[in-house]
Amino acid sequence: MLLRLPLVLARFLHNGRLRMLFLGLILLLFMGILLTYRWQTDVQLCFIDTEPTESASSGPVTDGNAPVPRIVDDVLTTEPKPIPGRSIFFHETSCHRPKRKRQRPDSQYNMLQLTARQACAIESAALHNPNFQVFVLFASPTYLHYGNSSTGGSSGYQRHQSIIDAILSYKNVHLRQLNLWRYAAGTPIEEWLKDGRLFRSSYLFSHISDFLRFLTLYRYGGIYLDMDVVMLRSMEDVPPNYTGAESNTHLAAGVMSLAPTGFGHEIAEACLQDFQRNFDGSDWGNNGPGVITRVAQKICATKDITLMLEDRKRCRGFKVFDRNAFYAVPWKHWRHFFEPQLLEQTLAHTKDSFLVHVWNKHSKQLAIKVGSSTAYGKYAEQHCPRAYAAAGDYF
Asked: Transmembrane residues, as ranges (predicted)?
């Protein structure tokens, strides 16, 4: 068979159509590799910056008549810093790469962007937990406009600025950026980050979010929240070291609390170790829900989530809340938040919840008209009124 291979190959290349097809496939493969490499390189550049420069707090600088956007303050160097165990954290890991054709003076900058729904999550946390500091951490160099929504510009810009103004009207809300490498320095995951596996992930932004939630809890303790929640009541007095069950087989990583010292810090370190030991860039859930599920299974010495819920002593003080606490409406029923005919049913189903999780991965394309009779609209109207009012016609 091997002896005949040169003859088969010669006949194949002698056929003009087959030869063109072969060369075309080789070219497509090469282009795919090149584009993948370029995408990974461009994306990695999103999360690299130089040493910290002037911060947003230093005041506006003008370029001609227009204020130059300034970089958001670094969480590691700017006061106020997170209070260990008394802070709530959100992460924004999207990368808005500047366009090559600059259509606006600020298009060369990675401008701070938040949707009304993200602002709702932030506002609801600040509203219900006034004695906690709420930090929104951006994982790439991010810039902020000066001025407010009354300074002119397009209606889209004004609406976006109104959303930012809404959350910054709370004295306990702080916008910060971080540099992944400096943020990981001195932690158990510092060397692993340098390996580069994180940036080869098929779900890069999601897995950077997973990476950061465990790293932030290791650094500061406190409460981590996904940005697609609405908090319904205070969690200030809930003892730390908890997460919530999403199903009968898995815990979720969208709401977690760990103490900054002692057992809570040990759990955070265990999560970082599990993250790097079992990291799989091809599996969306392995590095978030998978991490906290595996760590809890070791702590509680069981894979049976029912036992984790029923036997408090088994988990040595690590609390696993049942689904009603954070995930009363499962992801398969995400539309219940958006369907007027299910309003009363959904509100009744979540009446004892600390918060609701609206499953942005599935629901982000479905807008609701402000003032409509949907569960999500009712939550927003009550628990994030300023962001809801700033959303415009649709939320």
From this structure: 20-39
